[in-house]
């Protein structure tokens, strides 16, 4: 752990061309000290000193939380594993519904690691709280050090009108067992990115023509036809399976009965997704907003290409009260996904 903060800072600059500000530098020093106190000590000392079992790292979107923790995972790759929370909870849900034999067989999840980093922690329902708390207790028994990354503090991670005893236990588990570290940086790294010309179109008179040109660039002289977008569903979208491209209206993909499970499959099966005519997302479209957020999360995780078009500017699209906090992350991700740096890795 000697000079770990300097090694981490150097890795981030060399790998991602990002120069940390002073607040970020102090943050990685704090993380280094927390790891030294709890992760890089013997099991006996950990018991005697009653050290923490992990770090809860939170703060506003685009401030470099994931960048820092992904870099930690890269530097400690032999001891560490990184998992996105949507993937983790999906797998844990499958374990919950499997029979006892399967559960016993699969209960050795992450058997050889010493640290698990979980990005994008976001809890929307009480069922996931039950599953996650059980998982955290299990990981604690296995002495695996956990790092959670979230945009919300532990106290605001799950909001309910009437907080019951179980929800309080869930929140208190973090304060008792984890270092709580807030990322205080004011710099939004994604806002410094320049949006590429093949991403967001906001001229109603030219949008369709611009996206048609983009599609021709991707699929050449090939065509798109309506097919079931997911096997077993009745929802048809214009597809080109050879080039793994979807060409659809916003209403077709975000106002139909598609769930996060289907969006995950879509993002895995298609590399290029073109969405036309995004309307103003007000409170009347809160269900579509939730689906849009889920869709963007999955495309982002897959590092797929996305082009969207609307008669509104990106900053003007969202007007709903519901999911306002979550959409801040979506907007930040859209900016990154539309940057020339991101797009140049695909086109």
Poorly predicted parts: 103-108
The CATH superfamily of the largest domain is: P-loop containing nucleotide triphosphate hydrolases
Measured by DSSP, the beta-strand proportion falls in 15-25%
What is the mean pLDDT?
88
Can you describe this structure?
The protein has 347 residues and is of the alpha/beta class. Helix content is 46%, strand content 16%. The chain contains 14 helices and 11 strands. The strands form 2 sheets. Strands 6-11-10-9-8-7 form a 6-stranded mixed beta sheet.
Properties at a glance:
347 residues, alpha/beta, Rossmann fold, 2 domains, 6-stranded mixed β-sheet, 5-stranded parallel β-sheet, 46% helix
Give a short summary of the structure.
The protein has helices at 4-16, 22-38, 43-49, 65-75, 85-97, 100-106, 126-141, 165-177, 207-219, 250-254, 260-269, 286-302, 324-337, 340-344; strands at residues 54-59, 80-84, 115-121, 145-150, 178-183, 200-201, 225-228, 236-240, 245-249, 272-276, 305-309. The protein is of the alpha/beta class. The chain has two domains: 4-186, Rossmann fold (3-Layer(aba) Sandwich), CATH 3.40.50; 193-344, Rossmann fold, CATH 3.40.50.
Task: Give the topology, please.
Elements: H1 4-16, H2 22-38, H3 43-49, E1 54-59, H4 65-75, E2 80-84, H5 85-97, H6 100-106, E3 115-121, H7 126-141, E4 145-150, H8 165-177, E5 178-183, E6 200-201, H9 207-219, E7 225-228, E8 236-240, E9 245-249, H10 250-254, H11 260-269, E10 272-276, H12 286-302, E11 305-309, H13 324-337, H14 340-344
Parallel strand pairs: 1-4, 1-5, 2-3, 3-4, 6-11, 9-10, 10-11
Antiparallel strand pairs: 7-8, 8-9
Helix pairs in contact: 1-2, 5-7, 7-8, 11-12, 12-13
